[in-house]
Amino acid sequence: MLLSDLQGLLMCEVFSGEEHLDRPVIYGCASDLMSDVLAFSRSGALLLTGLVNVQTVQTAYIAELTAIVVVRGKKPDMTVQALALEKGIPLLGTPYSMYEACGILYRAGIPPTMERSTDPGSTGSK
Amino acid sequence: MKRVTEKTFSQSFSIVGREFFDAGKVSTEIKTMLKELGVDAGIIRRIAIAMYEAEMNVVMYATEATVTLELSPKAIRIVVDDRGPGIPDVELAMQEGYSTATTEMREMGFGAGMGLPNIKKNADHFRIDSVVGKGTRLEISISMN
User: Fold this and answer.
1) How many domains, in total, are found in chain B?
2) Whole-number mean pLDDT of chain B?
3) What pLDDT, on the 0 to 100 scale, is given for residue B7?
């Protein structure tokens, strides 16, 4: 699947990076915790998130993610859009909720990037 | 400050604490620099992730820090030396999920207690020394092989 296909599936608005919509989408991950994205994502993964700030874009650049899809119709401000443009990270927005957007992509065959935890109690907050 | 010797490249950077908007600038600058130098993509990703977590820690908790990057044909070494509150119990801070983060930090997507363990995970060599009331010195290196 290409980002342009995903754009149609999730009815996305493109905030920046229109020229990169020919990028392939190989893995997906969904998180509002950038630390988890940094710890568990793979290079080339797509990020679905409800967190829209400069740290989201910096995380995508650092972890070499293919694109960011902001869920539930949130609109990134101009600073965030400008940083995404500067870093070459496609920034899209979908009206779907995180749960729905994940479901649609999972059903379309996009596998998860994050490793499945073998010990459910190992990373819980205290 | 830029110093290039025959085999080792070294550069220093500054991070200012509580400047949330600038958080990540040093890490992205280092990443871009390593890319331009033609360093292996997998190594760059590990260095960038470790550096970004370290930078976020400084921004969230410390007053300021000096970052020294040393690049040799064998390894990349990074030292983050901060002036700040220090860490009273380093062993506890190294546990996944342990965090003293504020709501503001968590709203930025950080402060989940994954930073230090993730820095260690990405480094071949990891050392942390902390003095309460003075600051924390983090040293990591990643082998080029």
Assistant:
1) 1
2) 93
3) 66
CB contact under 8 A, A34 and B97: no
**What's the token pair of residue A58?**
């910096």
| CATH superfamily to which A3-107 belongs | HprK N-terminal domain-like (3.40.1390.20)
What residue ranges do the domains of chain A occupy? 3-107
Asked if B130 has any chain A CB less than 8 Å from its own CB, the reply is: no
- Enumerate residue ranges in chain A where pLDDT < 50: 123-126
Q: Are A117 and A40 in contact (CB under 8 A)?
A: no
Chain segment B34-52, per-residue pLDDT in tens = 999 999 999 999 999 999 9
**Chain A: residue nearest B57 by CA?**
A35
Given a contact cutoff of 8 angstroms between Cβ atoms, the answer to whether B94 and B117 are in contact is yes
Stretch B57-74: mean pLDDT? 96
pLDDT score at B108: 87
Alpha helices in A1-126 (DSSP H): 3-9, 34-40, 54-62, 78-87, 98-107
Q: d(Cα A56, Cα A58) in Å, to the nearest integer?
A: 6
d(CA B34, CA B44): 7
Cα A41 → chain centroid: 10
B113 touches A: beta carbon within 8 Å:
yes
- What's the helix, strand, coil split of chain A in %, to 5? 35, 20, 45
Instruction: Give pLDDT, residue A90.
Output: 98
Q: Which CATH number covers residue B56? A: 3.30.565.10
Give the range of the structural domain holding residue B116, as residue numbers without chain letter.
Answer: 2-143
Closest residue by Cα to residue A77 from A56, A60, A101: A56
